[in-house]
Amino acid sequence: MFTPFGGFDFMFSFMPILVVAGFILVFGIIIVKIVQGGITWNKNNNSPVLTVTAKIVTKRAAVSSYHHHHAGNMHHGHHSTHTTYYATFEVESGDRMELTVPSTEYGLLVEGDTGKLTFQGTRYKGFQRSY
Known about the structure:
Layout: H1 8-45, E1 49-70, E2 73-91, E3 96-101, H2 103-106, E4 114-120, E5 123-129
Antiparallel strand pairs: 1-2, 1-4, 2-3, 4-5
């Protein structure tokens, strides 16, 4: 069948499929992340609170940046950042674990310090330095 616009028929029939597939992919990723978060939360809640001797081996901070646009205006909006703080601890067996630590404690943790690390699953509960 001859159409005066050639490939446009294909584009108009293919684009809705592509848009729907994109939405399914995005929502699928969101659902997977929510389920993973729920599994981790449940696993942490069911883990015992442990206190072990540990050494702080390293620290790092990850900064996420967001730019929010006001409706219809791409040039005006506000910019915000969020920083997540991490510390890596080495226990007596030589195993290492990286835990998210609160900003209020991040500055107090010093690489090389040893002490008692308290944690529950992947949740940091505290670190008491040995003197």
